[in-house]
Amino acid sequence: MNKTFNWTASSQSREKVFIEMDKLRKKDFDWHDLQNLTASYFGGHDVAEIAKEAFCRHIGDNAVHQKGLHPSVSTYEREVLEMVFGLFNAPNEASGTITTGGSESIMLALKTARDQARAEKPEINVPELVVPQSAYAVFNKACHLLGIKLVQMSESPDFRADVAGMKEAVNENTIMMVGSAPPFPYGLVDPIPELAAIAKAHKIWFHVDACIGGFVLPFARDLGEVIPDFDFSVEGVTSISCDFHKYGYAYRGCSVLLLRNAELEQYQGFSTETWPAGDYYSKNVAGSRNSGPIASAWAVMKYLGYEGYLEIIRQLIASRQKFFQQIEASKSAQLLGRAEGPHFAFTVGDVDIHRLLANLMTRGWRANLGTKPDSVLLMLSHHHGQIAEKFGQDLNSAIEEARSQAPVDHDAQVYSIY
Fold first, then answer.
1. 43 assigned to some structural domain
2. At 60, phi and psi to the nearest 5?
C-alpha cells in the first residue's frame, strides 16, 4: 500500500465521522443566514424542507434510468416542463430538457446551434458566437470546449448588452447570439427584442440566458413591475435556459434548456452504435444524473403553485426596494442602474472596493465582487428586507473605515473576500 496516500487505516464509527465533519464545518456560513447576500436562493424554511424531502426520496435514483426503473421521475420531468412552457409562452411545438445546471443548459444550446450550422451551413469552417460583455463566463468555457470562436463585447451601455456592437459583430460565420434576462453582474435585462431581431434577420440562433431571472421576471411582471420582453413571445428567440435551483427553489443542480421547436433536438443529442452494451443516445452532456434535483423541482412547484411563487417574488421586490433606499441614502454609494432582476450592484467611487467588501465581511456580511466597474454585488432572497436597514448602517461605517485604510493587495486577497 502506498503510505503517502491519505486513507483512514481502520473504519470509524458513524458518531466519530460526523463529529469530525461538524468540526470541519464550524467555519462554514449558513446558506440561509440573513447576512448572506450571495447566490443562495432561499424561499423559506418550509420550501427548503419540501425540496430536501423530495430530493432525499430519490437520492439514489439515476435520472438516466427513469423509463425502466423510475417512471415517477418521468412524470416529474414532464409536469415540470409543462409548467415552464407556460411560464415562458412556449409554442406547442417547443421541447425541453432537464439538465444538471445552467452550465449544462448553455453548453447544450451552443452544441445544438453548432451542429445545426454544420448541417445547414457547411461553408462555415470556424463558427462564431456573439455575446454581451456581461454574458455568463460559461459561454467562454463552452466555446473553448466546442471549438467555437467567441466574439465578446467590451462595453455594456447603461449596464445592458451593446446592441449596436453586437449587430456590427455578426458576420457570415456567426451561428448564435446571446442575451441575458438578466446577466449576473448587473441585474438589468438585456434588450432581447432588439437582439433577437438582428439574429432573425441573419437567420441565426438566438439564446436567452434566463438562468437567474427565469423564475422571477414572469411573476414580477404579473405584480405590475415593468419587465422587458424576454421569452418565446419575442420573435427570433430560439432557446432559453433557466435554473430551477436558483429562484425556482429546487436543490442543486437542476436547470432546463427549452427549444422553440422540437425538431432542433436532432442536433442536440449524441448517439453511437459502436458500444458493445448496445446503441447509446443521450440528449445531455452529463451521463448519470441524480433524480433528486428533478424531484425537488417538481415538489416545490406543486407546493408553492403560481400564487406561492407570486407571494415570494412580491416580498423579494419589496426587499430589493428597501436595499435600494438604503444604498441611495448612503455615503457615496451609487447603484449601477435600477435592476429588474433579484440582484443588483453598486459602486463607491472614492474607496477601494476590495477593502470595502473586506470591511463588510468583518461585520458579518457575505457579498460578491464586481469588476467592470469595481462594485459590490448583492443577490437577494425574499426575507432580506428585514435586515436592509442594518446593512445600510454597516455600509456607511464600512465606507468610512475604508477611507482611512490602505488599498487591499488585490492579487493576494481578491479570492479571500468574496
1. no
2. -100, 5
Do 329 and 390 have their domain in common?
yes
Q: In this structure, are 312 and 292 located in the same domain?
A: no
- Report if residue 163 sits inside a domain: yes
Q: What is the mean pLDDT of residues 371-393?
A: 94
Of 267, 300, 333, the residue at which a domain comes to its end is: 300
Mapping DSSP to helix (H, G, I), strand (E, B) and coil, where does residue 411 land?
Answer: helix
Strand 333-335's sheet: what is its strand order? 333-335, 343-348, 374-379, 368-371
CATH code of the domain containing 331: 3.90.1150.10
Range of the domain at 397: 306-404
Q: Residue 348's beta-bridge partner residues?
A: 333
**Amino acid type, 124:** I
105/136 same-domain check: yes
Give the tens place of pLDDT for each residue, 76-132: 899 999 999 999 999 999 999 999 999 999 999 999 999 999 999 999 999 999 999
Does residue 410 lie in a domain region?
no
Neighbours of 280 (CB within 10 A): 12
Q: What is the pLDDT of residues 204-246, one digit of tens each?
A: 999 999 999 999 999 999 999 999 999 999 999 999 999 999 9
- Angular region, 219: left φ>0, alpha ψ -120 to 50, beta rest: alpha
Residues 374 and 225 in one domain: no
Spatial distance between the Cα atoms of 334 and 36, rounded to a whole number of angstroms = 21
d(CA 64, CA 70): 9
Q: State the number of CA atoms in the 13 A half-sphere of 258 facing the CB.
A: 31
229 and 133 both lie in a single domain:
yes
**Is the pLDDT confidence value at 38 over 60?**
yes
What pLDDT is stored for residue 416 in this prediction? 34
CA distances from 211 to 105, 127, 258, 367, 411 (A): 9, 24, 12, 19, 30
91 neighbors 263 (Cβ within 8 angstroms): no
Domain boundary among 300, 318, 335: 300
- Report pTM: 0.91
* pLDDT tens, residue by residue, 291-322: 889 899 999 999 999 999 999 999 999 999 99
Residue 357 within a domain? yes
Q: DSSP string covering 15-46, please? A: HHHHHHHHHHGGGPPPTT-TTB-SS-----HH
Domain count, the chain: 2
Dihedral sign for Cα 192, 197, 198, 202, please. Answer: positive
Burial class, 404, CB count within 10 angstroms (exposed 0-12 / middle 13-18 / buried 19+):
exposed
